[in-house]
Amino acid sequence: IDEVVKGSPAAQAGLQKDDVIIGVNRDRVNSIAEMRKVLAAKPAIIALQIVRGNESIYLLMR
Asked: pLDDT digits over 23-38, tens only?
């Protein structure tokens, strides 16, 4: 993540600059294109698996 806009759904979910998204709704993603493909289904709740520093964290976005 290069930037998180204040007040955005990403910010509300807890995403931070330099987080690395590695999974979306239990699907492993290796690129933005793969992430967009998973999100194209427009799920009501998005479960993100991210890496922040040395930790793997799960966040939920609505």
From this structure: 999 889 999 899 888 8
